[in-house]
Amino acid sequence: MGDIVLMHFSTVDYVIFVLLLVASAGIGLYYAFSGGRQRTTQEFLLADRSMSCLPVSLSLLATFQSAVAILGAPSEIYTHGTQYWFLGCSYFLGLLIPAHIFIPVFYRLHLSSTYQYLELRFSKSVRICGTVTFIFQMVIYMGVVLYAPALALNAVTGFDLWGAVLAMGLVCTLYTALGGLKAVIWTDVFQTIVMFAGQLAVIIVGTHQAGGIAEVWKKAQNGSRISGLDLNPDPLERHTFWTLGVGGVFLMLALYGVNQAQVQRYLSSRTEKVAIMSCYAVFPCQQIVLTMGCLMGLVMYARYGEESPLDKGYVKSNDQMVLYFVMDVLQDLPGLPGLFVACLFSGALSTISSAFNSLATVTMEDLIKPHVAPMTEARATLLSKMLALGYGLVCLAMAYIASLMGSVLQAALSIFGMVGGPLLGLFCLGMFFPWANSTGALVGLVSGLVMAFWIGIGSFLSRMSASAPPVMNGTIIPDVGNMTTALMTTLITSKPRPSGVQALYSLSYMWYSAHNSATVVVVGLLVSFLTGKVKNMNGIIMLY
């Protein structure tokens, strides 16, 4: 930890943190014992299709605004400048397309699980493959989302690591298993407010300490952290306007168009119109969240300049750096560090509670109901609750596995992106291409997943080997402070453009979703042409 003491929490901070957990659990218990008391699967999994616009839109926002994002965006801006802000351009199309293409299809078919669509359109086997892929994706994601913030918190403040993980995991499992989707959506609303409050507190206090917003902007400009529009069309560049503005659209579609956790929110809306409105309402909120992340990164830069806590050895990773900054800025204001930690854990709670609920839904609707003799509503509901509980415990187990993975955390997060793309491709294949058949869909999905993992793991490994110390004539260059840095810089600047497979590995991660969904569609169409036409063209197959 370098040469500084851990920054400690005051009693007030712990009280605020505990209040967050108590309030979340309280909301869950309230919905467990009021209204329809979660007696039917319709209420437990779909909130009786009775939700209004505001809670649904805030819940949509909170679901993928995880703690990883709250810690990730500011450190991205601090390190690389404001180019990342152009991701906001992709939100517009990324929410418009789901609102007018995906939501109407799913809503009018009265589905509970998005994967029912795949059976109606293709066949049962396609549906099961889609479901299993989704379960795999979410289970891995849950563990990381729970573990990553607790790890950063532990490193910076000495907050008990497994205490935090268990407290969150258990509270979340409790209110999800007892209160159903209603509880999940209303706790999301509460947690979104806490998230805004926590980030706002840091930005206001930090800006004040840095000498006002004009001063922050000036420092960022002098440090060339304010990026202009980079119109470089090269897909290998990490962040340009095209990778963020166009590649980001596919990322958004995979999240807001076909992901069960989000589609379940749309389906819980009162009417189709409310579902579409809530999708629109996410747009300004997303922009605010993004802007707040950017501002926080700039305030961080104004405070530390080029001398980041990371370089000085106070912290070991980027996400810890943001927490260190927060503790540094707020240390004399008891209660505010607690508020930010509550904000961080709100991010994690809202993400994993949605994961539990959507996993319980797909397991119930796609894997159990079609293969088991019809059961009574009461039994089905009890089983759904047990599933939510079971996934909660699986999540804790995954958090433990995540703790053993070390530097592979980043890879686990990109698995989320890797799997989202092929699933998006599968749904697009069904909705936009009437001549695609189920053989094409299966082969397409598999080839999309193979492609995704090949690129994902390949790029991860090639990055790992690139970050190893440079070797000259078989001897490893010792790290002699700036000399190596200078040498490394010259090595890096004269790097030739990668070609062949290496170019594929260097593809910007923002293009993964687009590339993998395109693979599914292209392969799916080719195989469909080779294996003959679609057997069962029902009226519902295409868009309407």
Please give a structural write-up.
73% of the residues lie in helices and 1% in strands. The protein has helices spanning 11-32, 41-46, 53-63, 67-80, 88-108, 115-121, 124-157, 161-210, 213-222, 241-256, 260-267, 272-304, 318-330, 336-368, 377-405, 409-432, 438-466, 482-493, 501-505, 512-531, and strands spanning 471-472, 475-476. Strand 1 (471-472) and strand 2 form a beta hairpin. The radius of gyration is 24 Å and the shape is globular. With 544 residues, the chain is mainly α. The protein has 20 helices and 2 strands. Residues 470-494 have low confidence and may be disordered. A two-stranded antiparallel ribbon has the order 1-2.
Key descriptive features of the protein:
mainly alpha, 544 residues, 2 strands, two-stranded antiparallel ribbon
Topology of helices and strands:
Elements: H1 11-32, H2 41-46, H3 53-63, H4 67-80, H5 88-108, H6 115-121, H7 124-157, H8 161-210, H9 213-222, H10 241-256, H11 260-267, H12 272-304, H13 318-330, H14 336-368, H15 377-405, H16 409-432, H17 438-466, E1 471-472, E2 475-476, H18 482-493, H19 501-505, H20 512-531
Antiparallel strand pairs: 1-2
Family: Belongs to the sodium:solute symporter (SSF) (TC 2.A.21) family.
Membrane topology: Multi-pass membrane protein
GO biological process, one term: inorganic ion transmembrane transport
Beta content? under 5%
Question: Radius of gyration, rounded?
Answer: 24 Å
The secondary-structure class comes to mainly alpha
- Strand order in space, largest sheet: 1-2
Number of helices: 20
Largest sheet: 2 strands, antiparallel
Average pLDDT taken over every residue? 85
First-last Cα distance: 59 Å
Shape: globular
